[in-house]
UniProtKB/TrEMBL annotation:
Residues 25-136 form the Aldehyde oxidase/xanthine dehydrogenase a/b hammerhead domain. GO terms for molecular function: 2-furoyl-CoA dehydrogenase activity; iron ion binding. Residues 799-825 have a biased composition (Basic and acidic residues). It comes from Aureimonas pseudogalii. Its EC number is 1.3.99.8. The keyword Lipid biosynthesis does not apply. InterPro entries: Ald_Oxase/Xan_DH_a/b, Ald_Oxase/Xan_DH_a/b_sf, Ald_Oxase/xanthine_DH-like, AldOxase/xan_DH_MoCoBD1, AldOxase/xan_DH_MoCoBD2, AldOxase/xan_DH_Mopterin-bd_sf, CO_DH_gsu, START-like_dom_sf. The lineage of its organism: Bacteria, Pseudomonadati, Pseudomonadota, Alphaproteobacteria, Hyphomicrobiales. The keyword Oxidoreductase applies. This is 2-furoyl-CoA dehydrogenase large subunit.
C-alpha cells in the first residue's frame, strides 16, 4: 500500500477506532440487543410459496385458536388501516407491504402472526390456511417485455413500467461516420450484500395520539420516512423512527426494511401492544432486497486508434415484482456518468424498467455502478481485441484530459478533480505491471491459462437526490417541481463542563463514523479526539435531519464529516470571540490547541477550553454582543453544484468523483475451471484521506464484496420463479480463503466541492473489480464474452469440448412443471427384510405408515386407498408442519401400486407420484423398485440442492430403516436417487 504522509493534525491519521472496544468484546447494541417494553409481542410472517398466484382464501381460524396468538394481520387489515406505498414512477399500480389479492414473488408476505413469543407465532403461521390459484410466472426480463408474457399488474397493461430515451450530442452522425462499430450484450445477475445482521423492527402505537414509534435497523435514505408516514396515514411528526446505536452491516440493503416497518407498526396497532420482529436468514435471502439484474446492449463508434466517439446504450432493468422507492435509483444513479472516465461527447440511451416475478430490488453497495461498468469496460476490452490494440492504449487515449477539470460529461456530471493519467501511471509503476506481464508470458509458454484484466472507472459519491427525477420527462419534472441537492446535517453541543458532543443524521454500519468525526472536530477545536463524544444513531423526533439524510452513496466523508467541520468552524469562531475578551486580545489572535485558548503572540496568555466553552452556560451575560451562545451549533450543508436535471436531461447525479484504475492477473484451471487471483492492484483517487486505516478497510471490504459478485454470488430463480439460493450453502459468499489481499495505491486530488476535500471510497471496487476479473478471465481463456458469476462449472463447460450424447441414452419425455413448481424425478430400489405380502400390507396400514414416516403425528385412513397425514419435518433451517393427502391407485396386489401425495403448509407445497413394484427374493425378503416424479415449491424448496438433497437422504434412510424394523428386523437400504422419494408421502420435497 502506498504510504500516506502523517498529518500534522488528527485528521489524516490512522488513530485507533473508538467503536472497536465495544464491538470486539460483544458489547455492541444491535436492534435485537435493545431492551423492550414489558408485554411486547413477537411476530412471524407467513410468506408465499408461489411466484405468481391469486389468493383465493386465507383462513386464520386455527391460528387464532392457538393459545398465545394475539392476532393475525392479512392484506384486508392492511388495506383498511393504511395506504399503498409510493411507487418509484407514476404508473397505474399499487405497492403494498403485504399481498392483497395476488402474490407476485416467492416470499411475499401473506399474513403476519403476532403472539406472546416467536415460537408461538411460528406455530401460528403453520396453522394459517391459504388457498392459491397458481398463475404463469415470468423471471427473464427480456421475456417479460413480450406482448404474450404473463402480466404481473393487470392495471399496468404490461410489465414495462417505464421507458425513456435520451440523446446527448449527435450520436447518430458519430456512428454513421465511425471507422468501426464494436458492441457487447451483457446480462448482469442479481446479488446482494448479505450482512451478518438481518432486518429487525420494534414498533408501538399510541391510539390516543394516532402516533407510531418504531425502532429499526434502517440505513436510510430518510426520504423513505415520508413514504412510511404516508402509507400509515399520519403526518411525519407522528411517525417516530429510531435506529439502534450499532448495525451489523447493511451495504445499502437495509433501506429495504421499510415495508416491514409499516407492517409491524400496523401489527402493533391491531394488537394494541408493542410488536417485535427479527428476520431469519432464509427470509433475508429470499425476500429482503437484492441488487437489480440488468440486460445491457452497448455499442461504440470507434476510430482506428481506439478512440471512442459515441456510445449507444440500451438498458433493461429488472426491478422484480414491485417498483419500490427509492428505485429506480439503481438505473439512474450513474446517469451523469455513462461515459465513465472517458471523454466521449456523443451518447444515446434507452432505459426500460421491467417487472418480473422476483423479489423487489433495492440499493446494494455501488448500486448502478457494477451493472454499468461491467458493460462499459467489457466494451473497452473488446475494442482493443477487435482493433488489435493494447488495452492500456485504448483506455489512456479515451481518458478525460488531466487539465480539463472540473469536467462536464456529455450526460451532465461535473467531474470535480483529478489527473487520471498520472494516477494510472503510478499504478502501473508501483503495482508492478511489467512483472505481471512477464508472469503471463511465462505461464502461457507452459500451457497455462493466465490472463490480465484492466478497468478504469469513476466512483461517484454524494448523490444528488434529484437524479431519480430523470425518469420523468422535462414536462413532468416541471409539473412536479424541482428536486435536487444532498443536504448533510451535523450538530455540535457543549455542556456546562465544557464537554463536546457531536450528532449527525447518518447511520453507520461499521464505517467508523464516531472515530473520524471526533478527529475532524478535534482538529478544529484544538482538543484530543478522546475528549469528544459522537452519537451516530438517529431519532427523527429528536435530531436535526432532512429527507436527504442517511448513510448512502459514499456520502459520509465528503458530506457528513464536511458538515461536522462546518459546524465546528462556526462554534470555534464564537469561542475565539469569547476567549478574546478573557485574554484581552482580538479574536483573530486566538488559537485553539491542546485543550486551551491562547494568544498567538503570547502562548502563556491562555485559558482552558472548558472555561471558554462553558461560559454560555454559567455566565451568558459575559458573552460579547455578537455572540448569541456557544451551547449548540447545527449545520445543514447543501452543495451548490447539485441542481435539478435540466430541460436537456443533463444530470449532475453526484457531487464528487473519485478515480479508480485496477489491473489484475488470474489463472484459470483448465480441468476444473477454478479461478485463482494471482495479483490484484487497485489505485484510488478518493480526494483527501481522512483516516488511512479505515480507507484501506473500506477498499478491502468493497473488494471482498466484489470478489463474491464476480466469482460466487447469484440470486438464482427457476423458470417458474422458484427461489433456488435460499441458504448460504447455495448462495456462496466469499471468505478469507477466497479473497486475496489487494495491493492498494493512492493518488490524492482533493475535491474543491467538499469542506474537507474528501471523496467517497467505499463503493468503488464493487464497480471496478467484477469487470476487471471478468476481463482477466476472458483474456486467459480467449472468450469473446463472459457471464457472472465466474463459477468453475460454467468455465469448465466452456473450456471442455462438448460431449456428444450416447445413441443408446434413453429418451424420456416428461411433462413440464406447472407455474410455481419445481419438478423432481428419480428412481431406485430398497431391500426390506420381510415377505412381499407383508410389505404390501404395511403400505395399506395407517399405524405402520405413522410409525415409519419421519415426523408423522397421525395418519388417518379415510377410504381403503386414501390417507390423511399430519407431518412435521425440518430441512436445515426450515421446519414446518404439513397437511398431507396420500392415495394408492393402480393396485396389483401384491406386486405393484402407484402412490400419490399432495401437501400444503406454511413453508411450501409438494405433490408427487411414484410406481412401486415389489419383487420377492429367494431369501424371503422383498426388493422395492420405484420410479417417481414430484414437484415442490415455497420456502422448503428455497434451501436449494445441496442442503435439500443431504437432508432428504437422511429422511429416506429413516423411512426404510423403520420399515425394515417393522417388518421384523433386518437391514434396510436404499440406492439410487432417493432424495425426493419423500415427496410421495406429502412432505413438500
Amino acid at each position: 500500500m502506498t504510504a500516506i504522509p502523517r498529518s500534522s493534525g488528527w485528521t489524516g491519521r490512522s488513530v485507533p477506532r473508538v467503536e472497536d472496544a465495544a464491538l470486539l468484546t460483544g458489547r455492541g447494541q444491535y436492534v435485537d440487543d435493545l431492551p423492550i417494553a414489558v408485554g411486547t409481542l413477537h411476530a412471524a410472517i407467513l410468506r408465499s410459496p408461489h411466484a405468481h398466484a391469486n389468493l383465493r382464501r386465507i383462513d386464520s381460524t386455527k391460528a387464532l385458536a392457538l393459545p398465545g396468538v394475539v392476532c393475525v394481520l392479512t392484506g384486508e387489515d392492511v388495506r383498511r388501516l393504511s395506504r399503498s406505498m409510493t411507487v418509484g414512477v407514476k404508473a397505474d399500480v399499487e405497492a403494498w407491504p403485504i399481498a392483497m389479492d395476488r402474490v407476485r414473488y416467492v416470499g411475499e408476505p401473506v399474513a403476519v402472526i403476532v403472539a406472546a413469543d416467536r415460537y408461538l407465532a411460528e406455530d401460528g403461521a403453520d396453522l394459517v390456511e391459504v388457498e392459491y390459484e397458481t398463475l404463469a410466472a415470468v423471471v427473464d426480463p427480456q421475456a417479460a417485455t413480450e406482448m404474450d408474457a404473463p402480466t404481473l399488474h393487470p392495471t399496468l397493461g404490461g410489465n414495462v413500467i417505464n421507458e425513456r430515451r435520451f440523446q446527448y450530442g449527435e450520436p447518430a452522425a458519430a456512428f454513421e461516420n465511425a471507422t468501426r462499430r464494436v458492441g457487447v450484450t451483457i446480462s448482469y445477475p442479481r446479488n446482494s450484500g448479505t450482512p451478518i445482521e438481518t432486518y429487525g423492527v420494534v414498533a408501538s402505537y399510541a391510539p390516543g395520539e394516532d402516533a407510531y414509534d418504531v425502532t429499526a435497523n434502517f440505513q436510510g435514505p430518510f426520504s423513505i420516512h415520508a413514504v412510511i408516514a404516508r402509507a400509515l396515514g399520519v403526518p411525519g411528526n407522528r411517525m417516530r423512527l429510531r435506529t439502534p446505536p450499532d448495525s451489523g452491516g447493511s451495504f445499502g440493503i437495509k433501506q429495504g426494511v421499510f415495508p416491514y416497518v409499516i407492517l409491524m407498526a400496523l401489527a402493533a396497532r391491531v394488537a394494541n401492544r408493542p410488536v417485535k420482529w427479527i428476520e431469519d436468514r432464509l427470509e433475508h435471502l429470499s425476500a429482503s432486497v437484492s441488487a437489480t439484474n440488468r440486460v445491457t446492449t452497448l455499442e461504440a463508434a470507434v476510430e482506428a486508434d481506439g478512440r471512442v466517439t459515441a456510445l449507444r446504450w440500451d438498458q433493461l432493468e429488472d426491478c422484480g415484482a414491485h417498483l419500490r422507492a427509492p428505485e429506480p435509483a439503481t438505473l439512474y444513479r450513474m446517469h451523469g456518468n455513462m461515459t465513465g472516465a472517458y471523454a466521449i461527447r456523443h451518447v444515446a440511451i434507452r432505459n426500460r424498467i421491467v417487472l418480473t416475478n422476483k423479489t423487489p430490488t433495492g440499493l446494494n453497495r455501488g448500486f448502478g455502478g457494477p451493472q454499468m461498468y461491467f458493460a462499459l469496460e467489457r466494451l473497452m476490452q473488446r475494442i482493443a481485441i477487435e482493433l488489435e490494440l493494447d488495452p492500456l492504449d485504448v483506455i489512456s487515449r479515451n481518458l478525460v484530459p488531466a487539465g480539463a477539470f472540473p469536467y462536464r460529461t456529455a450526460t451532465g456530471a461535473l467531474l470535480d478533480s483529478g489527473d487520471y493519467q498520472a494516477a494510472m501511471a503510478r499504478a502501473i509503476e508501483e503495482g508492478g505491471l511489467a512483472d505481471l506481464l512477464e508472469t503471463r508470458r511465462a505461464a502461457r509458454e507452459q500451457g497455462r491459462l493466465y490472463g490480465i484484466g484492466y478497468t478504469a472507472a469513476v466512483e461517484p459519491s454524494v448523490s444528488n437526490m434529484g437524479y431519480i427525477t430523470a425518469v420523468l420527462s422535462p414536462a413532468a419534472r416541471r409539473k412536479a417541481g424541482p428536486k435536487s441537492g444532498a443536504q448533510a446535517t451535523a450538530t455540535i453541543a457543549i455542556d456546562p463542563l465544557g464537554a463536546v458532543s457531536v450528532k449527525v443524521a447518518s447511520v453507520p454500519q461499521g464505517q467508523g463514523h464516531r472515530t473520524v468525526l471526533a478527529q475532524v472536530v478535534a482538529d478544529v477545536l484544538g482538543l484530543d479526539p478522546g475528549a469528544i463524544r459522537v452519537l451516530a444513531d438517529v431519532d427523527t423526533a429528536r435530531d436535526a435531519w432532512s429527507i436527504a439524510s442517511g448513510n448512502y452513496s459514499s456520502r459520509f466523508a465528503p458530506a457528513v464529516a464536511g458538515a461536522a467541520k462546518l459546524a465546528a468552524d462556526r462554534i470555534a469562531a464564537k469561542l475565539k470571540r469569547v476567549a478574546a475578551g478573557q485574554l484581552n486580545v482580538t479574536a483573530d489572535e486566538v488559537e485553539l490547541s491542546d485543550g486551551r485558548a491562547y494568544a498567538r503572540s503570547n502562548t502563556q496568555n491562555a485559558v482552558s477550553f472548558a472555561r471558554v466553552a462553558a461560559a454560555a452556560h454559567w455566565a451568558p451575560g459575559t458573552l460579547p454582543d455578537d455572540v448569541d451562545q456557544t451551547i449548540r451549533e447545527t449545520v445543514f450543508w447543501t452543495p451548490e453544484q447539485l441542481i435539478a436535471p435540466d430541460d436537456e436531461d443533463l444530470v449532475n447525479s453526484s457531487l464528487c468523483h473519485g478515480f479508480i484504475f485496477d489491473f489484475c492477473g488470474v489463472e484459470v484451471d483448465r480441468l476444473t475451471g477454478a479461478v485463482r487471483i494471482d495479483r490484484y492492484v487497485t489505485m484510488h483517487d478518493c480526494g483527501r484521506i481522512l483516516h488511512p486505516g479505515m480507507v484501506a478497510g473500506q477498499v478491502t471490504g468493497g473488494f471482498a464484496h466484489a470478489v463474491g459478485a464476480a466469482l460466487l454470488e447469484e440470486y438464482a430463480y427457476g423458470p417458474d420463479g422458484s427461489f433456488l439460493s435460499g441458504t448460504l450453502a447455495d448462495y456462496l459468499i466469499p471468505t478469507v480463503m477466497e479473497v486475496p489481499e489487494p495491493i492498494i495505491l493512492h493518488y490524492e486530488s482533493p475535491s474543491p466541492f467538499t469542506p474537507l476535500g474528501a471523496k467517497g471510497v467505499g463503493e468503488g471496487n464493487c464497480m471496478s473489480t467484477p469487470v476487471c476479473l471478468a476481463n482477466a478471465v476472458a483474456d486467459a481463456c480467449g472468450f469473446d464474452d463472459v457471464t457472472l458469476p465466474l463459477v468453475p462449472a460454467r468455465l469448465a463447460d466452456r473450456l471442455a469440448s462438448e460431449e456428444k450424447p450416447s445413441r443408446d441414452a434413453p429418451k424420456t419425455v416428461r411433462e413440464p412443471a406447472k407455474p410455481g413448481e419445481r419438478k423432481l424425478t428419480g428412481e431406485g430400489s430398497a431391500l426390506v427384510a420381510a415377505p412381499r405380502q407383508a410389505v404390501w400390507d404395511m403400505l395399506l396400514d395407517p399405524r405402520t405408515l405413522e410409525a415409519v414416516i419421519p415426523g408423522a403425528h397421525g395418519v388417518r385412513k379415510v377410504s381403503p386407498t386414501r390417507f390423511l397425514a399430519d407431518v412435521t419435518l425440518g430441512v436445515g433451517p426450515v421446519k414446518g408442519r404439513y397437511r398431507a393427502e396420500i392415495e394408492l391407485t393402480d393396485l396389483n396386489e401384491p406386486e405393484a401400486v402407484t402412490l400419490s401425495g399432495g401437501t400444503d403448509g406454511a413453508l411450501g407445497f409438494g405433490r408427487g407420484s411414484g410406481r412401486i413394484t415389489l419383487v420377492e427374493t429367494a431369501t424371503n425378503q422383498t426388493t422395492l423398485h420405484y420410479a417417481y416424479e414430484a414437484v415442490i415449491g415455497g420456502k422448503v424448496a428455497s434451501v436449494g440442492g445441496r442442503l435439500l438433497d443431504g437432508a432428504a437422504r437422511v429422511v429416506i434412510g429413516q423411512f426404510f430403516k423403520s420399515l425394515a424394523s417393522h417388518a421384523g428386523g433386518g437391514r434396510g437400504s436404499a440406492t439410487g436417487i432417493l432424495s425426493r422419494l419423500r415427496g410421495w408421502f406429502g412432505r413438500g420435497a
